[in-house]
Amino acid sequence: MIGEKVMDKLANLDEVAYVRFASVYRQFKDINVFVEELKELMEKNKER
C-alpha cells in the first residue's frame, strides 16, 4: 500500500527513480517485466 503510493508520486516526479523503485518493490524477475513496465510508463506519458 505505501509502496504503491510512493510509486504514484515517483512516476510524476522522476521516471528513472520510479522504475528503479518499482523493480525492487515489485521484484521484477527478468528483463521482460522491466520492459513492460517501461512501456506502460511511456504510454502514460503520451496521455499527458
UniProtKB/TrEMBL annotation:
Pfam families: ATP-cone. It comes from the Bacteria. Residues 1-33 form the ATP-cone domain. GO terms for biological process: negative regulation of DNA-templated transcription. This is Transcriptional repressor NrdR. Signal peptide: none annotated. Keywords: ATP-binding, Nucleotide-binding, Zinc. InterPro entries: ATP-cone_dom, RNR_NrdR-like. The keyword Zinc-finger does not apply. Coiled coil: none annotated. The keyword Ion transport does not apply. GO terms for molecular function: ATP binding; zinc ion binding.
